[in-house]
Design goal:
The protein has 472 residues and is mainly alpha-helical. Among the domains are: 171-370, no CATH class; 376-471, Glucose permease domain IIB (Gyrase A, domain 2). It contains 20 helices and 6 strands. It has helices at 2-20, 23-32, 41-51, 54-66, 73-93, 101-118, 135-170, 173-186, 193-202, 218-223, 237-253, 260-277, 281-287, 292-311, 324-330, 340-361, 381-384, 393-402, 432-437, 459-471; strands at 206-208, 214-216, 410-415, 419-424, 442-445, 450-454. Strands 3-4-6-5 form a 4-stranded antiparallel β-sheet. The protein has a two-stranded antiparallel ribbon with strand order 1-2. The longest helix has 36 residues, at 135-170. The radius of gyration is 26 Å and the shape is globular. The two termini are 25 Å apart. Residues 394-472 form the PTS EIIB type-1 domain. Keywords: Cell membrane, Kinase, Membrane, Phosphotransferase system, Sugar transport, Transferase, Transmembrane, Transmembrane helix, Transport. It is a multi-pass membrane protein. Residues 3-371 form the PTS EIIC type-1 domain. InterPro entries: Glu_permease_IIB, PTrfase_EIIB_Cys, PTS_EIIC, PTS_EIIC_1, PTS_Glucose_EIICBA, PTS_IIB_1.
Length: 472
């Protein structure tokens, strides 16, 4: 079960690299165009639009990961409409609910499931225009209504519990700071970090300004000149300015040779965005799902940085985000802020060597280290010229299914130009000898549960029969 969950998260992580590609430049523009720098409000507003769409980006990523189709355009349209319906229902039922990016994940997965099942449904001829692959555009928004109603009740205790958790953290000293940093990172994948953040950032403590105004929360108090504020904020400068750039460096270093240039480009962009703008999503989402161990390590280090800075009495806050620009601008308002630099340098190397050890020890599939899947350009001329001895595709599909353990053993089935690609529950059930007797020319084992059966250019016809047998 654990391996199956990790496999599904890995698929989501790979798919998220596509929509997340939009975030680095948006993060840089948002920070550079802010009022304290270039002061270009039009450009700043446009840049922050991207981060207001994070739930939509996650919905698109989930559809890309789980919809079983070569062309994902139609299920993506279904997800876009369904997400709007889902959020509208949530607001109608309870306007205080904010599910963040988790709403996108829920709706994207739901849309993919609806698409995978409904595309083969048979309906009366008069409704044929709306059915088939287009059926998801009608069905998914309808499913989003009861789903939204359900989550309007499910999410209330989750949100309330996290808010109470934030109140406990505020009074727990160095332990509280550690737990805050840890949970802040761990909750990002499901978009609930903002619930804990809200209390710490905008409710914790109070300070009376020279004009008599009372301000509450770590961020407003720090900006108002409260010398006691910033203990819960200083930690984030460590991973943003030092830790994640170290992670980016080693991810690029450990990439496969033929993917080094592409990975270096991706990681350089992510590191620069984290350092200059304090936007970490492009880096974190690149390994969050494909290598959860690394993300857990990152979360622990964030909390550890917070506890260390708390014990060293380091206070520093931010006006826009935790980045080099805010570090410089707010430096004189902080207490012992210079300590962030030597501690940060140490954490750079902890991230670098810690990530390197785990990536190599566990062969983690970080960007640039993904398994190679056959694509059209890799297929030999000989494989393209394979011809089956029989055109009885149904019989061949039947025999293939029998010799890979039956439909109960099938996790996923796809086809490329010449190969039937299967993800199995138990690879030991594969009978290679009998598979070759069906007319297949060979088997490629990518892992214990992932195989490719070489059939030739007629593979799509065999795959069609194979999929129909799975649905019977």
């Amino acid at each position: 079960m654990f391996n199956r969950i990790m496999k599904q998260l890995s698929k989501l992580g790979k798919a998220m690299l596509i929509p997340i590609a939009a975030t680095p430049v948006a993060g840089l523009l948002a920070r550079l165009s802010a009022a304290d720098l270039l002061n270009l409000p039009v450009l700043e507003n446009a840049a922050w639009v991207v981060f207001g769409m994070m739930d939509l980006l996650f919905a698109v990523g989930a559809v890309i990961a789980y919809a079983k189709a070569k062309d994902k355009a139609i299920p993506i349209i279904g997800a876009v409409i369904s997400l709007s319906v889902f959020k509208s229902v949530l607001t109608f039922m309870n306007e205080t609910i904010n599910m963040g990016v988790f709403a996108g994940i829920v709706v994207g997965v739901m849309t993919a499931i609806v698409y995978n099942y409904s595309k083969e449904w048979k309906t009366p001829q008069m409704f044929s225009f709306f059915t088939g692959e287009k059926f998801v555009v009608t069905l998914a928004p309808l499913v989003a209504v009861p789903l939204g109603i359900a989550f309007s009740y499910i999410w209330v205790p989750c949100q309330a519990g996290l808010n109470s958790f934030g109140i406990w953290i505020a009074g727990a000293g160095a332990l509280g700071v550690f737990v805050f940093g840890l949970t802040n990172r761990l909750l990002i994948p499901i978009g609930l970090h903002h619930v804990v953040n809200t209390y710490i950032y905008y409710e914790l403590g109070s300070f009376v300004t020279a004009s008599g105004e009372v301000v509450k929360g770590e961020i407003p108090r720090f900006l108002a000149g409260d010398p006691t504020a910033g203990l819960f904020l200083a930690m984030f400068f460590i991973p943003m300015m030092f830790g994640l750039p170290g992670a980016c460096a080693v991810i690029a270093k450990t990439a496969k040779e033929k993917k080094k240039a592409e990975t270096k480009s991706l990681m350089t962009s992510g590191a620069l965005t984290s350092f200059v703008a304090g936007i970490t999503e492009p880096v974190e989402f690149s390994f969050m799902f494909v290598a959860p161990r690394l993300y857990a390590f990152h979360a622990i280090l964030t909390g550890a940085a917070g506890a260390i800075l708390y014990l060293l009495d380091v206070h520093l806050g931010m006006s826009i985000n935790f980045c080099i620009i805010d570090f410089v601008l707010n430096f004189n308002m902080g207490t012992n802020a210079w300590i962030i630099i030597p501690v940060g340098i140490v954490f750079f190397f902890i991230y670098y060597f810690g990530f390197k050890f785990m990536i190599e020890k566990f062969d983690l599939k970080t960007p640039g280290r993904e398994d190679d899947f056959i694509i059209e350009e890799d297929i030999s001329e000989e494989e393209l010229n394979i011809k089956l001895e029989s055109s009885n595709y149904q019989y061949m599909a039947k025999k293939l299914l029998q010799n890979v353990g039956g439909k109960e053993n099938i996790e996923e089935v796809e086809s490329c130009v010449t190969r039937l690609r299967l993800e199995l529950k138990d690879g030991a059930l594969v009978n290679e000898v009998n598979i070759k007797k069906t007319g297949a020319k060979g088997i490629v084992k990518l892992s214990d549960t992932s195989i490719q059966i070489i059939i030739g250019t007629e593979v799509n016809k065999v795959a069609k029969e194979f999929k129909e047998m799975l649905e019977d």
